[in-house]
Amino acid sequence: MTTAPPAEALIIYGTSWCGPCRTLKRLLAERDIAFSYVDIEHTPDAAEIVMKINGGNQTVPTLLFPDGSTLTNPRLSDVTAKLKLVSTQALKKASTN
Fold first, then answer.
1. C-alpha 19: how far from its chain's center?
2. Which among 60, 85, 90, 97 could bridge 14 via Cys, Cβ 3.0 to 4.6 Å?
3. Measuring CA to CA, which residue among 43, 42, 38 is closest to residue 13?
4. Quick one: CATH architecture of 11-96?
């Protein structure tokens, strides 16, 4: 896991031909988990973002979380656990402000 600039919401970087990308999008949608999807083959600079996160590799799916952390080719359970952690951290920050 690496850290990138924070995002407003969960972002999934993928491609149209990526089976794990399609599966992850479907599973997140079934659970009403909001996300933005970026096709790295059709969005300028998206492939470069993925390569920066993944040591020069265009590995998808690559996820960018609101806290700037990333996961590459994760299981759904890893994604939901990370989202809970990010959400808990955001709530703690909000309560201290």
1. 16
2. 60
3. 38
4. 3-Layer(aba) Sandwich (3.40)
Secondary structure class of 62 (helix, strand, coil): strand
In this prediction the pTM is: 0.83
State the Cα–Cα distance between residues 72 and 20, nearest whole angstrom. 11
What sign has the CA pseudo-torsion 35, 40, 46, 48?
A: positive
Q: What is the dihedral of CA 12, 14, 17, 23, to 10 degrees?
A: -20
* Domain boundaries defined on the chain: 11-96
C-alpha to C-alpha distance for 97 and 87, rounded to whole angstroms: 16
pLDDT digits (tens, 9 = 90+) for 48-58: 999 999 999 99
CA 76 to chain centre: 11
Q: Which residues partner with 32 through β-bridges?
A: none
Give me the chain's average pLDDT, please: 87
